[in-house]
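S1.2 Input.
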Amino acid sequence: MALIVKKSQLPNAGKGLYTDRPIAKGEKIIEYKGEIIDWKEYEKRVAEDRDGYLFFINKKRCIDAYSTPRYKARYANDAAGLSRVKGLKNNACYEIFGDQCFIVSTRAIEAGEEIFVSYSKDYWDCIRYNIKNNLYKNKLKGRD
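S1.3 Output.
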């Protein structure tokens, strides 16, 4: 399977991740890869506003794809995020297998479709809180 990175269908989302072939429900689409860090380093990067691509597995293992644009999983957007488009819904989820994270399809996905994965309600609640309280340092601007 080839996954393609190009402009997302979601306004202000930057780039998105697309498939060039059909994907069956329950299929592992791609592994979420990046630099492996611990929770202490995770918190440091959050404080430095470098947390746009962090994935928490456990306190000893977090994945940071911020400096690794070659790993395509980071380009999957959340259709239930801040900018929504009628008819677009998440079609995948993150699943942890041991110390790895994969994007896994939650329904059959057609060739040419954009991959949308839930970032979680907690994630968006935090983003909305930060925006409301002016704590959000233009994180949405310039995202890939």
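S1.4 Remarks. The longest helix spans residues 121-132.
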